[in-house]
Design goal:
This protein is an alpha/beta fold. It is built from twelve helices and ten strands. The site of 6-(5-methyl-2-OXO-imidazolidin-4-yl)-hexanoic acid (DTB) has 16 residues, from β7.
Length: 334
């Protein structure tokens, strides 16, 4: 495996549009060649999700079943108890996950919320899992508190291009999102940030999302690419689904633009054929959400994913010891 790959942060929109428009085989060849220079192409990182606080969210994200603005018949839940979180984390580990991601339907956590989540992070760590949380917007102080608690990853998505963003969310700005990412980065927590496609955005918007992610001061360690999960009651229900070939192209472009990041084939796999998923892995996706539920919607069963991995000869990637993670961080920043 070589480490001489150039990591750029100056991608132009037209360059990305040209990448996305390459003949499919050319695009996949480029993405896969780069992928195997950095990663073992037969390994995929496995994260499991748990919704620790479900529904009644004050934000109006048009894709989200948890927004209080829409009637999605979702069963709302208060913040889970630490014991419930430990039980779910043990189950995820027994099923083969190496990272446990906890999501809360908050605009932002209060300081009391944060203390409760910190108890969860410590308990999940004690089970021998990497930790990730996604709690909405964070202040610099809150990010540094999470770092002190030993949090490994913070997920906060840009979701789409700055131009299309206003069509999807009105209750927080793109700038707010970039600020939270800055706080997480400055606190030296691994950043997980990506977006959603299939929301009615244009091809230029998809290129624009990738450009934002790839031109961040440091590439996110993890880049989730979500296919919209359409939930009845949300404004985006009934959208024309995105062509799967187009989806694979986005994964390939993400791999080329952010060569050292883990690209996660995220929400939407329940609706995706095995062949599309296999093409995504070839194109450079090397992480998934694993387990029967995402946050509130369905994900393939563990048996289904184990069968797919076995057909493709894919193994679960083991987390690196802390020291080599830190070395990676130096290699990724340019
Ligand atoms: N409330 C926090 C926030 O928005 O930052 C954390 C949880 S939120 C559910 C995490 C991410 O899930 C969102 O940013 C969005 O990218 C993704 N997501 C939510 N609903 C989705 C859907 N229906 N389909 C695909 N992705 C979705
Ligand atoms: C991400 O990018 N996708 C995950 C995780 N980060 C938190 C969430 C997907 C949610 C899909 C809709 C749901 O299950 O509620
Ligand atoms: Fe709330 Fe997050 Fe859903 Fe937006 S995506 S409505 S912030 S839970």
């Amino acid at each position: 495996m070589s480490t001489t790959v150039t990591v750029r942060h100056d991608w132009q929109l037209d360059e990305i549009e040209q990448l996305l428009a390459l003949p499919f085989n050319e695009l996949l060849f480029r993405a896969h060649s780069l992928h195997r220079q950095i990663f073992n192409p037969n390994e995929v990182q496995i994260s499991s999700l748990l919704s620790i606080k479900t529904g009644s969210c004050p934000e109006d994200c048009s894709y989200c079943p948890q927004s209080a603005h829409y009637n999605t018949e979702l069963e709302k839940e208060r913040l889970l108890a630490v014991t419930e979180v430990i039980e779910a984390a043990r189950q995820a580990k027994a099923n083969g996950a190496t990272r446990f991601c906890m999501g809360a339907a908050w605009r932002n956590p209060t300081d009391k919320n944060l203390d409760q989540v910190i108890d969860m992070i410590e308990a999940v760590h004690a089970e021998g899992l990497e930790t990730c949380v996604t709690l909405g917007m964070l202040t610099a102080q809150q990010a540094s508190k999470l770092k002190q608690a030993g949090l490994d990853y913070y997920n906060h998505n840009l979701d789409t291009s700055p131009e299309f963003y206003g069509e999807i969310i009105s209750t927080r700005t793109y700038e707010d999102r970039l600020k939270t990412l800055e706080h997480v980065r400055d606190a030296d927590i691994h950043v997980c940030s990506g977006g959603i496609v299939g929301m009615g955005e244009s091809p230029t918007d998809r290129a624009g999302l990738l450009q934002q992610l790839a031109n961040l001061p440091k590439h996110p360690d993890s880049v989730p690419i979500n296919m919209l999960v359409q939930v009845k009651g949300t404004p985006l229900y009934g959208q024309a689904p995105l062509d799967p070939i187009e989806f694979v192209r986005i994964v390939a472009a993400a791999r080329i633009l952010m060569p050292k990041s883990h690209v996660r084939l995220s929400a939407g796999r329940t609706e995706m054929s095995e062949s599309t998923q296999a093409l995504c892995f070839f194109a450079g996706a090397n992480s998934i959400f694993y387990g029967e539920k995402l946050l509130t919607t369905d994900n393939p069963t563990t048996q289904t994913d184990q069968a797919l991995f076995s057909k493709l000869g894919i193994a679960a990637q083991q987390p690196k010891p802390l020291q080599s993670c830190q070395l990676d961080k130096t290699a990724n920043s340019s």
